[in-house]
Amino acid sequence: MIRIAVDAMGGDVGPAVTLPASLAFLEGHPDASVVLVGRPEVLAAHPLHARLQSHDRCQIVAASEIVTMDDPIEIALRRKKNSSMRVAMNQVKDGVAQAAVSAGNTGALMAIARYVLKTMDGIDRPAIATQLPNAAGGATTVLDLGANVDCTEDHLLQFAVMGSALVASITNNPAPSVGLLNIGEEAIKGSEVIKKAGELLRSASNSGDLNFYGNVEGNDIFKGTTDIVVCDGFVGNVALKASEGLASMIGGFIKAEFSRNIFTKLAAIVAYPVLTAFKNRVDHRRYNGAALLGLQGLVFKSHGSADAFAFERALNRAYDAARNNLLERVRERIAHAAPLLVAARVAPVTEGVAAVSSMPVDSTASTAAH
Amino acid sequence: MIRIAVDAMGGDVGPAVTLPASLAFLEGHPDASVVLVGRPEVLAAHPLHARLQSHDRCQIVAASEIVTMDDPIEIALRRKKNSSMRVAMNQVKDGVAQAAVSAGNTGALMAIARYVLKTMDGIDRPAIATQLPNAAGGATTVLDLGANVDCTEDHLLQFAVMGSALVASITNNPAPSVGLLNIGEEAIKGSEVIKKAGELLRSASNSGDLNFYGNVEGNDIFKGTTDIVVCDGFVGNVALKASEGLASMIGGFIKAEFSRNIFTKLAAIVAYPVLTAFKNRVDHRRYNGAALLGLQGLVFKSHGSADAFAFERALNRAYDAARNNLLERVRERIAHAAPLLVAARVAPVTEGVAAVSSMPVDSTASTAAH
């Protein structure tokens, strides 16, 4: 039995999304159970509450507070110790659940996860990893997506190792390929950190810790050149959000062109099945559920604006990760790569070391190079 | 008369693109003339050569060498002193032409432009600026797109000032809005450099040097939240290429869905006018022609894979910039903002100063924080 702790209050919507998604998830997974964490009076007001309360694979756990989408990290972490997010995380820490899922405030979720679960040995900073669809018909796993700005090469190696464990656990491909996100122009190729990271990743590839492809560029994410793309959180976040913005603009243009006049509207009716197939293919909801990697427990982040379909996908991801022992796989790979990670730390770059386990998520800058 | 120097050999294709584009450009602009620079025997082999040679607004200038797409900067700069790229640039330096356009190797173009034309007073590093379509129906100007990695806040301010001059010269909006590209999560908001750049941009806004909107995120580029988005070259390059990759993937999916079977192919015929209108709307060729800003001369970079339609757009942009006195506008704005730029330089951040006028395009890292 895989048990998932659900922050039922998290996200822009809360129980109106998390409750139907949890019920659908339970129906789709006969060997799964759910711990719903939230304010009892709010949960009780939802029409599905009675059904979930009497469900033999659902348990409801009370939490008196809610972390809002714009709560500063300090408030979420220090003042709201009985938040649904925190109590859900405690379920994982106490071994009651194998994974926690929340659609709440990312910064708060990362900080609480770090505080409650702690990072794994050998990991300075947890990373956020998500999947994006690619033209090769699969998905590209990209990390980090915003938990860390100003990464050192050491961090990028950790991301590569953790990303490999994630993809290996989902796809059963034991050696997924890793690309290092860089820019393409000759001689203006990347910063010093990226250059050093490239060397580290090559060493890791030579010692069998990962399957390093080499540098990739922004377009390779959607081409599907590699299974995994590694980058610092600032770059990853911008690339992800720019892509969301572009997809939304293109969707809007398609809609506008088909609604222009009576003829285009008729064309839309004829093209409807094709447009629907296309829409399903690029539906970002299918890719909902980012993994917080590097913690001593599984945590998945749903998009704040997820609907029930999207939130259920995040629950599925958490379930798959727990079932495929993602935690153990990450631990093993990190342990195996430990000599490289240690070597990276005794190298001249020291800022990364100073940042170890400092709380909350910090913004230690990259090294000055030349 | 506006005269444009064209590197006729540059790009993946060379004269087969640059010659038809130049002719079309001349036909569309009765007050423009063109200086075509290239290897005489190669140009002579093109069917349009005779027409261009006898054109009263076209002059052909010989250059014996070609900078290839993968020539290292050193080779392009030091060994190929008679390249078509370099000779085209010399036309601008010598005052023969008001702008140069090349579809060649970006790194080489930037290095040659810096070497031949020099940077303006007050500018440490030139930037590459391009326009991207946005959902608001206009275009967002984004810079830098890859000329500079590891920027300081001082550089970001320079980019903002130069970008404002560019947009003001194209749109006749004297105070285009500027957004600073950042990531959205509370407390993990950006690096130290971004935070400092935000302060600098606010000061510049208060002193009337630019119209600073505040931080924006990746999706704001395509939303059209601001007229200009400023970022370091690494981030800008990744965002641009990721967007290109996504657009290409979506285009491929649409094509695949409409070619699936006889019914979807019929739907494609019915929807053809709508699909064509949509395609025109997102046609990246319309946005071809990036400006190299901060040099003592106008230089525009065409995409290497541009076709004649796209290359003509780049020529149009160069023409518009020359006609609207972009150079003088950038110079004036930089001069006006000089006190702020000087103030930024005497601030603790010193790496930016060390980089002034170093050649070729360097990768001086950002400052270590804490």
UniProtKB/TrEMBL annotation, chains A, B:
It comes from the Bacteria. The keyword Lyase does not apply. Its main location: cytoplasm. Its EC number is 2.3.1.274. Belongs to the PlsX family. Homodimer. Probably interacts with PlsY. Catalyzes the reversible formation of acyl-phosphate (acyl-PO(4)) from acyl-[acyl-carrier-protein] (acyl-ACP). This enzyme utilizes acyl-ACP as fatty acyl donor, but not acyl-CoA. This is Phosphate acyltransferase. It comes from Polaromonas jejuensis. The lineage of its organism: Bacteria, Pseudomonadati, Pseudomonadota, Betaproteobacteria, Burkholderiales. The gene is plsX.
